[in-house]
From TrEMBL:
<dbReference type="GO" id="GO:0003924">
    <property type="term" value="F:GTPase activity"/>
</dbReference>
<dbReference type="GO" id="GO:0043022">
    <property type="term" value="F:ribosome binding"/>
</dbReference>
<dbReference type="InterPro" id="IPR005225">
    <property type="entry name" value="Small_GTP-bd"/>
</dbReference>
<dbReference type="Pfam" id="PF01926">
    <property type="entry name" value="MMR_HSR1"/>
</dbReference>
<dbReference type="Pfam" id="PF01018">
    <property type="entry name" value="GTP1_OBG"/>
</dbReference>
<dbReference type="InterPro" id="IPR031167">
    <property type="entry name" value="G_OBG"/>
</dbReference>
<feature type="binding site">
    <location>
        <begin position="213"/>
        <end position="216"/>
    </location>
    <ligand>
        <name>GTP</name>
    </ligand>
</feature>
<keyword id="KW-0479">Metal-binding</keyword>
<keyword id="KW-0547">Nucleotide-binding</keyword>
<feature type="binding site">
    <location>
        <begin position="282"/>
        <end position="285"/>
    </location>
    <ligand>
        <name>GTP</name>
    </ligand>
</feature>
<dbReference type="GO" id="GO:0042254">
    <property type="term" value="P:ribosome biogenesis"/>
</dbReference>
<keyword id="KW-0378">Hydrolase</keyword>
<feature type="binding site">
    <location>
        <begin position="191"/>
        <end position="195"/>
    </location>
    <ligand>
        <name>GTP</name>
    </ligand>
</feature>
<dbReference type="InterPro" id="IPR014100">
    <property type="entry name" value="GTP-bd_Obg/CgtA"/>
</dbReference>
<dbReference type="InterPro" id="IPR036726">
    <property type="entry name" value="GTP1_OBG_dom_sf"/>
</dbReference>
<feature type="binding site">
    <location>
        <begin position="312"/>
        <end position="314"/>
    </location>
    <ligand>
        <name>GTP</name>
    </ligand>
</feature>
<comment type="similarity">
    <text>Belongs to the TRAFAC class OBG-HflX-like GTPase superfamily. OBG GTPase family.</text>
</comment>
Length: 336
């Protein structure tokens, strides 16, 4: 199934049914009173979460949704039938945004979320309701009102506890695969990961957490270069970030690569930049021990305020400590 995480749609609630003008015409009652009934209210449009969905692909091609109109009133004081409501189902983590103002309407973050997004029009009133002691034969009614029309953006933000960032080919997908049940695409070329990938990390039978991998960032990503920037919002609800760095670069490039990611995170969103971020230096299995020791020594000397790991995601060396420490961090901060 194609992964779609942002769509623009139009929702239009139903129009209320018109009231009815009618007078009783029964045998032996030549001058019966007014008996025109009310119309029915227009149908509403609701948006509801569905835990079985993980994409907005259902709204990729169908862009307009209409609730049913209320039926007009009838004689004999019969009210018109209310227009049927319709429900639009979205994945947990969907954000609803006003298309015109770009204001966030709400975030649907759990499986029981439901929101009235477009209210149906009010019913029209029949002439029987306007009868009074001074007006026994009212010849007027009210029309049903139009339902709300709204243009909205549905934006899916994946719900995860831990987010993974880094340059292309730093080993993010390999790390995800080594600690979770996820099976991201892995290859020896840039941008192997084309869409976000979620994995569940199981600590034991009762405890687990969710980790998310997004396509690699490059310099200029916050201005639209590469693939990663369009998926950065999927990390907004993470509690902690893992920044994976390729140790195969020379030491100066390693530090430059760290700064590239930090700058792109800061440009995109300061909240994202200020999240707790651990540094994971990957591919220690691909270098001689002497070179590894030299690089580790320099890194530890120059980076003192970040938690640091040295691992081989491919060989699963050092990865156990990462997910154990992550779980402990989440537990201590009451995220789980």
């Amino acid at each position: 199934m194609k992964f779609v995480d942002e769509v623009q749609i139009q929702v239009t609630a139903g129009k209320g049914g018109d009231g009815c003008i009618h007078f009783r015409r029964e045998k032996y009652i030549p001058k019966g009173g007014p008996d025109g009934g009310n119309g029915g209210d227009g149908g509403n449009i609701w948006i509801k979460t569905d835990q079985n969905l993980n994409t907005l692909v259902d709204y990729k091609f169908k862009k307009k949704f209409f609730a049913h109109n209320g039926c007009p009133g009838k004689s004999k004081n019969q009210s018109g039938k209310k227009g049927s409501d319709i429900f639009l189902y979205v994945p947990i983590g969907t954000r609803i945004i006003n298309y015109n103002t770009k204001e966030i309407i709400c975030d649907l973050d759990n499986k029981k979320n439901i929101i009235l997004i477009a209210k149906g029009g009010k019913k029209g009133i029949g002439n029987s309701k306007f009868k009074s002691s001074i007006n026994r034969t009212p010849y007027y009614k009210t029309l049903g009102q139009k339902g709300e029309t709204r243009f909205i953006i549905l934006q899916l933000i994946l719900i995860s506890d831990v987010g993974v960032v880094g340059l292309p080919n730093s080993g993010k997908s390999t790390l995800i695969q080594s600690i979770s049940h996820a099976k991201p695409k892995i290859g020896e070329y840039p941008f192997t990961t084309l869409i976000p990938c979620l994995g569940t990390v199981k600590i034991d039978q009762k405890n687990s957490f969710i980790i998310a991998d997004i396509p690699g960032l490059i310099q200029g990503a916050s201005h639209g270069l590469g693939l990663g920037v369009q998926f950065l919002r999927h990390l907004e609800k993470c509690h902690i970030l893992l920044h994976v760095i390729d140790l195969l670069y020379n030491i100066q490039d390693i530090f430059n690569n760290i700064k590239i990611i930090e700058k792109e995170l800061k440009k995109y969103n300061k909240t994202l930049y200020n999240k707790t971020r651990w540094l994971v230096f990957n591919k220690i299995d691909s270098l001689e021990k002497k070179i590894i020791k030299e690089k580790i020594k320099i890194i530890l000397k120059n980076i003192k305020k970040k938690k640091i790991f040295f691992i081989s995601a491919l060989k699963k060396k050092g990865v156990k400590k990462i997910y154990q420490d992550l779980f402990q961090y989440l537990k201590n901060n009451q995220y789980k």
